[in-house]
Backbone:
């Protein structure tokens, strides 16, 4: 399906949201992702397609994706950054099961690493707009506090993320399973983790070793980003 860029939004120095109008009605569930195709000349070996979570909520008219741009970015990201209003991109159908559980009484714990915040923005906006009340705790892991995005969306849904600041590269202190387990208030909690692939894999391993039940663990990982 085609979608037209109608708005870009700068969230901080490196992070932008892109708002698209789909050519026809687009049904999805908060937390799902799409594939975007951006044909461009001299594409690098990573090609012209990427997956992005829809950071928008199904209650919003437009579709949004949110991403970070690095200095040594891919040709895909450069092309995305240079898109002009009214440019048209190709998007796939929505995919994925990183979505809220049907049972609205289940206590939830959201763990986000960096850009892994995007599905939670969609869910929080959905909860606020539909006035659906859920018991949600949240840890948001970031290299520095200035990287935080979407605070107002979470506040409107009654969610207060606890920031976990890792610092940079050599001195980084990564989030560990025990930081999460110590914070969980209800032993029936469903734990959601979304972030760079190495972070999600490490936490999954640690949680399994600690005996956290796999059937209460929901994972979403983003390849192509460094651990947070
Ligand atoms: C289900 C799913 C959902 C996702 N949702 C999101 C989302 O909501 N937001 C989001 O931002 N991403 C999301 N992603 C990840 C996204 O698809 C990209 O992989 C990611 O944004 C990195 O983009 P990029 O490869 O263009 O690299 P860039 O962002 O441009 O760069 C990332 C890193 O890769 C390095 N790099 C760049 N080009 C190359 C190259 N040719 N070879 C080796 N290294 C290189 C850069 O130096 C940088 O360190 C999702 C992925 C999946 C699977």
Residues:
């Amino acid at each position: 399906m085609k979608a037209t860029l109608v708005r870009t939004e700068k969230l901080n120095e490196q992070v932008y949201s892109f708002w698209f109008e789909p050519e026809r009605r687009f049904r999805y569930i908060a937390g799902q992702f799409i594939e975007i195709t951006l044909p461009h000349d001299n594409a690098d070996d990573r090609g012209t397609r990427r997956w992005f979570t829809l950071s928008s909520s199904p209650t919003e008219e437009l579709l949004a994706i949110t991403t970070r741009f690095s200095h040594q970015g891919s040709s895909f990201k450069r092309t995305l950054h240079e898109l002009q209003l009214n440019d048209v991109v190709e998007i796939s159908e929505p995919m994925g099961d990183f979505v809220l559980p049907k049972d609205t009484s289940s206590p939830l714990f959201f763990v986000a690493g960096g850009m892994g915040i995007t599905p939670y923005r969609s869910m929080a906006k959905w909860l606020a707009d539909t006035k659906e009340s859920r018991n949600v705790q949240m840890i948001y892991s970031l290299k520095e506090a200035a990287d935080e995005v979407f605070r107002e969306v979470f506040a409107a849904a009654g969610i207060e993320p606890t920031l976990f600041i890792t610092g940079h590269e050599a001195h980084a202190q990564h989030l560990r399973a025990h930081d999460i387990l110590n914070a969980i208030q209800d032993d029936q909690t469903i734990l959601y983790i979304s972030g760079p692939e190495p972070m999600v894999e490490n936490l999954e391993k640690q949680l399994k070793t600690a005996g956290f039940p796999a059937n209460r663990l929901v994972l979403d990982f983003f390849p192509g980003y460094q651990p947070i």
User: Anything to note?
Assistant: Residues 33, 44-46, 50-53, 65-68, 70, 72-74, 76-77, 96, 115, 118, 222-225 surround flavin-adenine dinucleotide (CB under 6 Å). Residues 143 and 167 are 5 Å apart (CA to CA). The helical segments are 75-81, 118-130, 151-156, 177-183, 197-209.
